[in-house]
Amino acid sequence: MPIKFGMLGMWHSHAHGMVRQIADHPDEFTLIGCHDPSAEVAADRLGRWREHLPELHLFDTPEALLREPLDAVVVEGQVFDNLRLARLALESGRPVMLEKPAGERLDDFRRLVDLAQRKHLHVQMIYLFRYMPAVQELLARVRRGELGRLYEFRGRLPKDRASYDQYAAELQPYPGGMFFEMAGHLIDLLVALLGSPRQITPFLAHHHTRPPETFIDNGVAILSCDHAWGIVEVPSFEAAPHSRRIEVYGTEGACVIPHLGSGHLPNKDVQVVEVFRAGQADWEPIELPNRPLQISDLREFAAVVAGRKEPDYTLEHDLIVQESLLRAAGMDR
Fold this sequence. Notes:
Layout: E1 3-8, H1 14-24, E2 29-35, H2 39-49, E3 57-58, H3 62-66, E4 72-75, H4 79-91, E5 96-99, H5 106-119, E6 123-126, H6 133-143, E7 150-156, H7 164-170, H8 177-194, E8 199-205, E9 218-225, E10 228-235, E11 245-250, E12 253-257, E13 270-277, E14 284-289, H9 295-305, H10 315-328
Parallel strand pairs: 1-2, 1-4, 2-3, 4-5, 5-6, 7-10
Antiparallel strand pairs: 7-11, 8-9, 9-10, 11-12, 12-13, 13-14
């Protein structure tokens, strides 16, 4: 039987891919209905998504949707509202897939985690880069010890300048601006590789000549981990294409993803990983077949909820990521 989802919040750009993957895999998943606090957002999304799910229902309130026979809930609203929606889902007894970042205040996320643990319900963060083939290859090589002891992680996740005005408006509620929006993807992987940072030093600025001057549009953070540095970069006015990358260096080798791709926009059919191991003459490029995003996240969630496996990323991990993100984005006050 397919797992029956409801969706609370329809605003986030990742929601489109989530709906598409649910629609493309009807033997595994189904979407019973959706709700968004904004009637305008709800109408827009419903108009787009009914091409893939003609019977999709829109509900006026979260409570009305949660009265349906749901197995789980996906939360895809605005960051400032997502923890409230996730709490409603958990209180109704449903496990949750929660869009990143995990709210604006660490204590709010801690309370959500406490609720999930008390109710023995799974909460899975939607950090879409986790299951990209290139990232999986990187993680596997590190875990096998091929790179030796890691001493540096560097991640770069720019946004293109054509979308600058849109993001400046959308991210106005968040003091960390674009860095807060995007850096969690990289910090999630940094923590998986290097553990909990001991010290975090942010460098956050507005470097565009265009207002608003309060919008953080160019951020860098240095994270000090045991025997290693983590460097996270998020500029908001990139001109060069294919410039998202991750680099990991160790005492026995290195692994670089030269083009990470996008979490929800079209991606190339092949992802390249460049590997160097001590004793080799040069870097070795490895081509990996790409696959659609979101489907691996959905299958991980379904397997954990069904009790077939333990989660790849624990709530303790997610708490470390969220605390590190807030500190790096200057939002830990």
